[in-house]
Design a protein that fits this description.
Helix content is 22%, strand content 26%. It is an alpha+beta fold. Strand 12 and strand 13 form a beta hairpin. The N and C termini lie far apart (77 Å). The structure holds zinc ion (2 copies).
Length: 367
């Protein structure tokens, strides 16, 4: 299940000042406090949820991170990790003062025609490993819908008002009998709205909603990985009846690279090196994601060893240090030895007391 938006939890605007955030949280904490709702699991969850939201939004730095990355900003700990009421009060107790025990609140019934937040949208975009290093600005285009400005979402023509639906008498549901059962379903006349319009608004044809084509420029920061979600606040579906817009979540997919395999901020690649360079050590030129670099191969490098090229990996999303590239070294033998090479190798074999085949390729002892 996806987690609820922190602003939505506290019921505040995205640009709410600190004192508004504090007030909103205090209100919820009082309303859902376990002492006032003994044994009520739902209230307890709401109480914790509000504390989690307040923890992030009351801290300007965490709030900025959340605005940018959504819940992903705190993946692996950080957000809303409270266990019980005591834990929460020891954290934020000071904001309650002696106000505790204030008047109970009536749960308000939510009408279908009340302002409602628009849906969040998901957009997937693919980038290359090279773009992960540099970060990239990308223009994205998509279609969604928003509240009709002409009728403010009511669907009724200017100057007229929606009327109570004559089919369902405002309940938004009709009850039909099917055999022994009575089934409630959404009213076909008003589509569950409970109201209908006599003179439909022209731009939206009475629907209260209009299509919206969006084109936005998005900064994809360096260091993102497949699965990173970037939140663009209020660029989702428009709100209903003047409610706030949803958010747009842009999900990143990083295209696989033909040579480099990613593990976090490090990259891995295979590299074939002539056996002489492996034995003697060498400085060799190796490919990186963006170009070429010199790699120092230590003397006596064994086949399969991983040699590190420092700082040529990927940048970290939240830090400044870049990862490394590890080259797994494979031994490369010449296709064929020339006369001089063979002579030298035979001398090496002799000095190491190693039995080797004769020049004709036959084994010496069997000759
Ligand atoms: Zn309209
Ligand atoms: Zn109806």
């Amino acid at each position: 299940m996806s987690r609820r938006d922190y602003y939505e939890i506290l019921g505040i605007a995205r640009d709410a000042e600190q004192d508004v955030i504090k007030k909103a949280y205090r209100k919820l904490a009082i309303q859902f406090h376990p002492d006032k709702n003994p044994g009520n699991k739902e209230a307890e969850e709401k109480f914790k949820e509000a504390a989690g939201a307040y923890e992030i939004l009351s801290d300007p730095q965490k709030r900025a991170q959340y605005d940018r990355f959504g819940h992903d900003a705190f993946r692996g700990g950080g957000g809303g990790g409270f266990h019980d009421a005591e834990d929460i009060f020891s954290h934020f107790g000071d904001i309650f003062g002696d106000l505790f025990g204030g008047g109970g609140q009536q749960q308000r019934r939510r009408s279908r025609n009340e302002p409602r937040r628009g849906a969040d949208l998901r957009y997937v975009t693919e980038i290359s490993l090279k773009e992960v290093i540099s970060g990239i600005e990308r223009e994205i285009e998509f279609d969604t819908e928003e509240n009709c400005k002409e009728c403010k979402g009511t669907g009724a023509e200017k100057g007229s008002q929606p009327i109570t639906c004559p089919t369902c008498h405002g309940s938004g549901q009709v009850v039909r009998s099917q055999g022994f059962f009575a089934m409630a379903s959404t009213c076909p006349t008003c589509h569950g709205q409970g109201t209908t319009v006599k003179d439909p608004c022209k731009p939206c044809k009475g629907k209260g909603r209009v299509a919206s084509h969006r084109k936005i420029r998005l900064n994809i920061p360096a260091g993102v990985d497949t699965g990173t979600r970037l939140r663009v606040a209020t660029e989702g579906e428009g709100g209903y009846m003047g409610g706030p817009a949803g958010d747009l979540y842009v999900e990143i997919r990083v295209k696989p690279h033909p040579h480099f395999e990613r593990r976090g901020e490090d990259l891995f690649a295979e590299l074939s090196v002539p056996y002489v360079q492996m034995l003697l050590g060498a400085e060799i030129e190796v490919p990186t994601v963006t170009g070429k670099e010199k790699l120092e191969l230590p003397k006596g490098t064994h086949p399969g060893a991983a040699v590190k090229l420092q700082g040529q990996g990927l940048p970290s999303l939240r830090g400044s240090r870049r990862g490394d590239i590890y080259f797994q070294v494979n031994v490369q033998f010449p296709e064929k030895l020339n006369k001089d090479e063979e002579k030298l190798l035979r001398e090496i074999a002799k000095s190491r007391n190693l039995d080797v085949a004769g020049e004709s390729g036959l084994f010496g002892r069997k000759k």
